[in-house]
Amino acid sequence: MPAAQLATTLGPQLSSHLTGQPTVTSLAVADPGGLIQSVDWVAVAPPLIAALAGLAVLLADLFLPERRKKLLGRLAVAGLALAVAALLPLTGGTPRSTFCLQDVQGAAGCSYVADHFALVFQLLALGGALIAALLSVHTVDEAKLPGGEYWFLLLSSASGAALLPAARDLATLVVALEVASLPAFALVALRRDGRGAEAALKFFLSSVTATAVMLLGVSFVYAATGSLHLGVIADALPHAPGQLKPVAEAGAVLVLVGFAFKVAVVPFHFWVPDTYVGAPLPVAGYLSVVGKAAGLAGLALVTSIGFRAYGHSWGSVLAVLAALTMTAGNVAALRQRSDTEHGAVRLLAWSSVGQAGYLLVPIAAAGYRPGPDALGATAAYGLIYGVVNLGAFAVAAVVGRSTGNRLDDYRGLFATRRWTALALAFFLLCLAGLPPGVIGLFGKVVVFRAAVDAGLGWLAVVMAANVVIALFYYLVWTAKLFAPGPAAAEAAAPALRLPASLTATVALTASAAVVLSVLPQLVLQVAGGSLF
């Protein structure tokens, strides 16, 4: 407490020791109301609604009869839709913050800030979770997954992913990241076969190791700066005592390692293909978008705010990792065989690794060009990638209902499911960055510009080479949709009717991709200004 307040409180006690007379100590403070936190419930509403919806699903599961369990999925979808709607009151005006503290030196820090950065990534996290929930409705019923547990875990993970972009201290970041990750382990393991258990175990062990490394880094940073708030850390790092600077630098490296695992950055990407194949398909789509968004948000926050004093150092490291990640992901996707079971899901998994490399480029550029403006390119590209990638997973769920999800199973899809094939073709062209998938092309241009503006010309060249590599396997998959094949012979037979939720998911993602291609400014304006 301040010196004057300390003297007021301890003065009577000191006097009693000198005079020998007992006194009654007053514990009152000048401003007792200042010790009570005033929570901005509107600011925290998006993650809070998702968490409350998860609790509501868990309680409803205890009382609903078995024949009414399908209502749990509708409740989960409604809860996520309400959480997305709760972002609207936060879009206008200045950023809102809550859970703020002030230490004895006067340094202030807020643990939760609802600024433009937080809102964009919360939209990506909650919107991606909503699409994954729609995609999950038929999967829970057909695969006979435990509905109450599934929806509770999905909503819990979504609440953590929505909390993370608004976190502004390392403790809240770690807690939010684990709230997003721990339920995801269980979601992967809900698949009732050996593949699901193996995938969950590999995912769990790798993630726990990364978390332990990150916590060690957080402790080092706290030891060197005396604070967990990112703004205070940024101010303290340049003035850290000489003997503590190596501790601070080691802590920064370890923290970045933990977030790099969540984003599936090389060399921390090895868990991705097996986990995606072993998980239920909606969970794989959820991890590819929402899990990646949470990791990217945390990585952007700790680098651009907390460790901005080391900008050139982490900028160089992230630039190299971005080049390695996009190259490893695209080359591995290029090598996928068309007759391998689950080959389509494995290709999407490796493609998501390559896309993670593209998403890292603007974050690396922010280390060379001071200011958070470059992060707008990551946010814009993340929104584009989230829509089209979840759409591709939705089509994979359609084909996987009757096949082994080999790439060859998509041959002649246009003859049997015309609109589904057109939707997948559009998603793949968006991912490749080719017209008519204009939004994918614009997204890549924005990322290219961020690299060039930061003086990372060599990284732009590497990205261009990887875009060419990705073009090949995306176009090969697209060509299979319209090529004659075994599926064409079945065109005369009526196709199995799709569940309404699956049809709605494909239609929703395809419509969003088309609208964004016609009106790209809806997303690209995110890259035009500061997010903080």
UniProtKB/TrEMBL annotation:
Its main location: membrane. Keywords: Cell membrane, Membrane, NAD, Quinone, Translocase, Transmembrane, Transmembrane helix, Transport. Its EC number is 7.1.1.-. InterPro entries: NADH-Q_OxRdtase_suN/2 (IPR010096), ND/Mrp_TM (IPR001750). Residues 167-468 form the NADH:quinone oxidoreductase/Mrp antiporter transmembrane domain. The chain crosses the membrane at residues 44-64, 71-90, 117-138, 150-167, 173-191, 203-230, 250-272, 284-307, 313-335, 347-368, 380-400, 421-443, 455-477, 498-523. It catalyses: a quinone + NADH + 5 H(+)(in) = a quinol + NAD(+) + 4 H(+)(out). It is an enzyme of class 7 (translocase). Belongs to the complex I subunit 2 family. This is NADH-quinone oxidoreductase subunit N. It comes from Kitasatospora herbaricolor.
